[in-house]
Amino acid sequence: MSGWDDLYPLLVLPSWVPGAAAGIVSMYLIQRVIFPYFWADLRYLLKVLIYGLRVERYRLQGRIFTILDKFVKLAEKQPHKPFLIYEGKVHTYQDVDRKSNRVAQVFLHHGALKKGDTVALLMANEPDFIHVWFGLSKLGCVVAFLNFNVRSRSLLHCVSSCEPKILVVGADLLGTLEEILPDLQKDISVWIMTKDSTFSTVHTLLDKIEAASDDPVPVNRRSANNLKSSVLYIFTSGTTGLPKAAVISQMQVLKGAAGLWAFGATADDIIYITLPLYHSAASLLGIGGCIELGATCVLKKKFSASQFWSDCKKYNVTVIQYIGELCRYLCSQPVKEGEKNHKVRLAVGNGVRNDVWRDFLNRFGSVKICEFYGATEGNICFMNHTGKIGSVGRTNFFYKLFFPFDLIKYDFQKGEPIRNKHGWCEKVKKGEAGLLISKVNAKNPFFGYAGNKRYTEKKLLCEVFKKGDLYFNTGDLMVQDHENFLYFWDRIGDTFRWKGENVATTEVSDIIVMLDFIQEANVYGVSVPDHEGKAGMASLILKQNTLLDLEQIYKQVVTYLPSYACPLFLRVQDKMEMTGTFKQQKFRLVDEGFNPSTITDPLYFLDNSKKAYVLLTKEVHEMILSGKIKL
């Protein structure tokens, strides 16, 4: 017993230890109750700080280590690691580096391109999109990504607005090229990704790439010493009609590429990209993010709901990209056995509804949904780093120091921010919807749109809270709750979102009024139950002594508009309602929707199975609401 007696004093804890332990537990419980997101916020802010310090170091050094520089270094460091997997074929970092060198060599010797020249790229998702993009970037060119869904007049507008020296077209988009070639500016050199051509004025690229050297071009061609220098043009459809070329700077590319890292992705991840590469989500966040990590990307030509999970299992995918519609499509697929039998751990994207979010998690397992908010041309970004369902992100005092923003009161009738008697804008209270605006300064600049100073200026708000201040108008309404979570509420102005794309109402109405029997067209978006975004609807006024020709309307919209922009519903009215400022009245039309039980005007529905507009009866309406008719 004497031995235990000797040890007993050693086993008795000092009197202060229980008190200290109780204090620590109490502090932990208080933190969990009063500051439940403290550690998640701290981790996220540290990542923001690390990124900010890196960018500041580039600025002080006067030499930017770009995403392209990082890719070249990775091709040296890990040459045999898969960078792209496309249709089962592996393209290593070295493969893509050498192929892009060949592209650079072709245009160096045949294209007469100078550093800073613009080249437009009209290609679908395929490895050659990236080969051409990287190859041109190695020559110091600004690359303009064209939306391959855009046709005819809109496409010609996109090409001319970015003033390219060269237009490169993918082999599967020669039909689109044929439509615009007669009206294309003669000083634009056209190259197609084939070995031969039926067009007399068009150059072939594939044969020249195969014959070219894969030696790297001089590094000084791609070197960048300014974070604000332009590197890409990515087209965005805003509130003013035709698509606009958003200027993407080196700073924005670096920000976009850091997204996957900020959400916790690593070099060991395999990222699945099904979104189109002309979107900033796929190109900057996806491909750029993959390079930032040194990871592997599985590239899909086009999203397929039926093949999605089988692809994820086949390629051991761990990170997926989405838009809200994509998640809904996956949840709408027939249930199969083993749907949770995959390795996907992160899903990064935006626009998913609360109910779809929950359905997705319940059905496909413990995937962390990483929702974010950010406009292509914008200077503000939110990231939902806590996983709060429905939220696009969370803010706090420190985040607003880095990225100042506010939610202000908005007049829906006038279509402009509300200003008080002193001429200043007013902030909304927590829980109220307000227009999201972000401060424009040296740290958070707005680069605007290529070749369009007027549209650039229209996106800016001056004298908001005090004289001389300047803010970027996102055009989005948001709500901030009492826990500082942010929620997307709606778009303002003449834009709505459908199938993951912004649809500009003025562009759609301009196409419709080209028909000789249409006097006026008022285009707007209407909500459809269980669908993301809003479906297009057009209220039409016919010219006197003319008849409605549904066949002509169908032919017009499918020929000149992307599929997602074609109005699903038509309403024929005798008179167009106007606002007090002589603008088309949309609010009552939006509220009334497309219900034939409450609307006495003739209604029509775009039935894709019949390739025609058909009468929207109560029976058809019920079939749309029940999901029997797919939109």
Automatic annotation (TrEMBL):
<feature type="domain" description="AMP-binding enzyme C-terminal">
    <location>
        <begin position="507"/>
        <end position="583"/>
    </location>
</feature>
<keyword id="KW-0812">Transmembrane</keyword>
<keyword id="KW-0436">Ligase</keyword>
<keyword id="KW-0813">Transport</keyword>
<keyword id="KW-0443">Lipid metabolism</keyword>
<keyword id="KW-0276">Fatty acid metabolism</keyword>
<dbReference type="GO" id="GO:0005886">
    <property type="term" value="C:plasma membrane"/>
</dbReference>
<dbReference type="GO" id="GO:0004467">
    <property type="term" value="F:long-chain fatty acid-CoA ligase activity"/>
</dbReference>
<dbReference type="InterPro" id="IPR042099">
    <property type="entry name" value="ANL_N_sf"/>
</dbReference>
<dbReference type="GO" id="GO:0044539">
    <property type="term" value="P:long-chain fatty acid import into cell"/>
</dbReference>
<dbReference type="InterPro" id="IPR025110">
    <property type="entry name" value="AMP-bd_C"/>
</dbReference>
<dbReference type="GO" id="GO:0005789">
    <property type="term" value="C:endoplasmic reticulum membrane"/>
</dbReference>
<dbReference type="GO" id="GO:0000166">
    <property type="term" value="F:nucleotide binding"/>
</dbReference>
<dbReference type="Pfam" id="PF00501">
    <property type="entry name" value="AMP-binding"/>
</dbReference>
<dbReference type="InterPro" id="IPR020845">
    <property type="entry name" value="AMP-binding_CS"/>
</dbReference>
<dbReference type="InterPro" id="IPR045851">
    <property type="entry name" value="AMP-bd_C_sf"/>
</dbReference>
<keyword id="KW-0472">Membrane</keyword>
<protein>
    <recommendedName>
        <fullName>long-chain-fatty-acid--CoA ligase</fullName>
        <ecNumber>6.2.1.3</ecNumber>
    </recommendedName>
</protein>
<dbReference type="InterPro" id="IPR000873">
    <property type="entry name" value="AMP-dep_synth/lig_dom"/>
</dbReference>
<keyword id="KW-1133">Transmembrane helix</keyword>
<dbReference type="Pfam" id="PF13193">
    <property type="entry name" value="AMP-binding_C"/>
</dbReference>
<comment type="similarity">
    <text>Belongs to the ATP-dependent AMP-binding enzyme family.</text>
</comment>
<dbReference type="GO" id="GO:0005324">
    <property type="term" value="F:long-chain fatty acid transmembrane transporter activity"/>
</dbReference>
<feature type="domain" description="AMP-dependent synthetase/ligase">
    <location>
        <begin position="75"/>
        <end position="395"/>
    </location>
</feature>
<keyword id="KW-0445">Lipid transport</keyword>
<keyword id="KW-0547">Nucleotide-binding</keyword>
<keyword id="KW-1003">Cell membrane</keyword>
